[in-house]
Amino acid sequence: MTRERNIRLTVNGKVYERTVPVRLSLADFIREHLHLTGTHLGCEHGVCGACTIKLDGRTARSCLTLAVQADGADIVTIEGLRAADGTRHPMQQAFLDNFGLQCGYCTPGMLMTAIELLRENPNPSEQDVREALSGNICRCTGYQAIVDSVLAAARRARAADKRETV
To answer: How many whole angstroms separate alpha carbon 63 and alpha carbon 39?
Structure first.
């Protein structure tokens, strides 16, 4: 029985090929094999959202996904959000501008979830934001600043879209 398997995947635009244990979680692969430590491990049961990444364009809990299941996938971690020139993603900037983080442990998962929300719903209500983020646990902020950050990012994106169409 094979206990290791070769995988090839793209993480933040870079292709990686590795031989990994078949029971290695994607979160552990990202952190330990690729040394991208922005993906955090909290509960390791898929409940807290700290390990949320984008897997083939959709958010996924990397603690619940095996690395071998991601073979051939395109993954974006928190490290992949910044532009090549170092410019922050608009959602990262909104969190910074609106004090949407404190300790930062939940922030990568919150950002990934919020970005997916705005892709699906560019004009969310406060309730929409709270519902979308309900699978992400923050023990520091009380959530209001996080919700405000997401709503601010949505307003900024809509304003930018209006400027582009004029």
So the answer is: 10
pTM of this structure: 0.93
Residues 103, 153 within the same domain: yes
| Token duo for residue 143 | 């959530």
- Nearest of 33, 46, 31 to residue 6 by alpha carbon: 33
What mean pLDDT do residues 100-109 have?
A: 94
Give the CATH number, domain containing residue 102. 1.10.150.120
Q: Which positions ≥6 away from 62 have C-beta within 8 Å?
A: 25, 26, 27, 30, 39, 51, 52, 53, 55
* Domain assignment of residue 59, given as a range: 4-80
Q: Could you give the CA distance from residue 74 to residue 52 in angstroms, rounded to a whole number? A: 14
Residue 85 lies in a domain: no
Amino acid sitting at position 65: T
Pairing state between β 4-11 and 74-76: parallel
| Same structural domain, 60 and 112 | no
Which candidate, 89, 101, 106, 25, places its Cα nearest to that of 63?
Answer: 25
Residue 155 CB contacts under 8 Å (≥ 6 apart), including other chains: none
52 and 11 both lie in a single domain: yes
Q: What is the pLDDT of residues 65-80, one digit of tens each?
A: 999 999 999 999 999 9
Query: Is the residue at 55 inside a domain?
Result: yes
What gap in Å lies between CA 17 and CA 11, rounded to an integer?
11
